[in-house]
Amino acid sequence: MSRQDINRSGEMEVFVSVVERGGFSAAAQVKRITPSAVSKLVARLEARLGARLVNRSTRKLQLTPEGCAFYERSIAILADIAEAERPASSGERASGRIRINTSGSFGNHVLAPLLPAFMALHPAVTLDIAHTDRVVDLMEERADVAIRTGPLKNSSLIARKLGATRKLIVASPDYLKRYGEPCTIADLSRHCRIGFSYARAVEGWPLREGGEMVTMPITPGVQVGDGEAMRHLAIAGAGLARLAAFTVRADLEAGRLIQVLEAANPGDMEEFYALYMGQGGPLPARVRALLDFLVSHVRL
């Protein structure tokens, strides 16, 4: 077969479907071809590349390191192709439902104020928004876009960075009046520190003391499952909380919360990403419109 006869993007689309659907049969259903055709295509691809991309077994399909690298490059290339073709397409209009999964803090303080402008730009789009701080499976939750923080762990997802924010330790004036303001990291041991009830990447508060980084363990008297609940508890005087700056900006300006231990703030940034499935084909116009809007308008 000559190089001109090879449909490289078509091969990539099928291979990406195999990875994301978890097998040849599932990919065949999506591509409307036979499982045998999918198997032969992947075999030809491996032969041409001179590398095994997947390890096949009766129970599951597992990517090799070469397969992982080829998958990552494939979804990037297919996205570039779709973007290149977009200006030439006619009659494409953002319409239909977008399911968004985000944290309550981001949803209330960042997303909600922006959405009226997005809806005015795209009146044919409807939004279905779910708030949760727990990590979700986009496919299981049937979400089009998830907004999360931290490093990308699932290689089947594509991330677009929305911005970054500092973390601040805050407390209510009433709480500080009753228990005093902590002036050193050691002072934190006598204060209630509100914690999260789910596993965090860092178990404790990273702080700086005398040029050294230390982690203050959290042994909270109260735990919560989301940042908004933590914010409300801090305002009510339940204890100290370490929260993203954008969630407490209005509270600081209004005097509902006061920042403490600024000298110990290490200046670490919490990065926010819009995550979506790499589907090996053109992104739906409605999802692309939302992603482009968020990248352009989110300010943390």
UniProtKB/TrEMBL annotation:
Coiled coil: none annotated. GO terms for molecular function: DNA-binding transcription factor activity; sequence-specific DNA binding. Transmembrane segments: none annotated. The keyword Cell division does not apply. One of its GO terms (biological process) is DNA-templated transcription. Residues 12-64 form the HTH lysR-type domain. The keyword Ribonucleoprotein does not apply. It comes from the Bacteria. InterPro entries: LysR-type_TF_proteobact-type, LysR_HTH_N, LysR_subst-bd, WH-like_DNA-bd_sf, WH_DNA-bd_sf. Keywords: DNA-binding, Transcription, Transcription regulation. It holds the Pfam family LysR_substrate. Transcriptional regulator of the ttuABCDE tartrate utilization operon. Belongs to the LysR transcriptional regulatory family. This is HTH-type transcriptional regulator TtuA. It comes from Rhizobium chutanense.
